[in-house]
Amino acid sequence: MLKGEIVGRNNYKLLINSIGELLSQSRQKAFREVNSILVKTYWEIGQYIVTYEQKSKEKAEYGSELLDKISMDLRQKHGKGFSRSNVFNFRRFFLSYPKIQTLSGFLSWSHIVELISVENDLARAFYQKECLTNKWSVRELERQINSMLFERIALSKDKKGVLALAQKGHKIAKAQDIVKSPYVLEFLGIPENYRYSERELEQRIIDNMQHFLLELGKGFTFVARQYRITLGNKHFYVDLVFYHRILKCFVLIDLKLGNIAHQDIGQMNMYLNYFKKEEMAKDDSEPIGIVLGAQKNHTLVEYALGGISNKLFASKYQLSLPDKKSLKKAFENIVAKEIGE
């Protein structure tokens, strides 16, 4: 807004709004500049520590006397902000990112602390890319790292796919790209041994929709719950209906408490046929169906899905964070197998 326009219109409300917009933009710019300087300073501190280590042959690993000494002396001379854990993170920051130019100014120091906690270089590159693309908050980034999103997606790919995932992030081009196994629903707060119903599971998902959308991944928008389909005189209800903005299609999700049965797959196939005929707009792609159960019999699912032309998937959910050791081992085996070939 030009100053002359504000004066010329003699609009006091416009004047106040314009000043507010200017202040907001200036504060955001100042925050980015301060954050950029702070992050660069922490990186350089880490560089100093590593350089000293190399020359003195002392290690500033967590719990070392050198780290304690650096932390204590810096706190005495410069005040707060130099706890042992912070000083250790400065060092780890430099070791994780030898070239600071690879980092974006969007990332705050808190983002970086989460990223450098990821030991695997490929996984760290993936989370950095996804964080920037999706503008994750620190809390969202922490949750995705803890739920091992990278490993869960990577398990369905070969080595080239894993490398692409790390370099380019999670690109969605086909139905298979939006499906995970397992889906991690720890945010619902349901204890493992708690007896719950499908309706309670659905309600908890609705109550935690923001978290559920984060777990589903990019591109999902919520449409409806218990979406009614009437065939003849009989009513059927799809538990959850979403629309995917990237793939331009409906995504139907049916929730099951135990093992996914062949009847569940047949029912979802019916829902998809209905949506193809009755709900698809002219420019829509074919709908996708996901039957989401607590257990999945791979052999039964394989035969039940055989011959189905619709985009239909059976996947598992779990109510707690995944076993990190098992997922890491499975991921490492895939990469090692590809290298061996």
From TrEMBL:
Residue ranges annotated for the YhcG N-terminal domain, each copy included: 19-152
InterPro entries assigned: PD-DEXK-like_domain (IPR053148), tRNA_endonuc-like_dom_sf (IPR011856), YhcG_C (IPR009362), YhcG_N (IPR041527)
Domain YhcG PDDEXK nuclease: 176-328
GO molecular function, one term: nucleic acid binding
Top-level taxon of origin: Bacteria
Name of this chain's protein: Cytoplasmic protein
Species this protein is from: candidate division WOR-1 bacterium RIFOXYB2_FULL_37_13
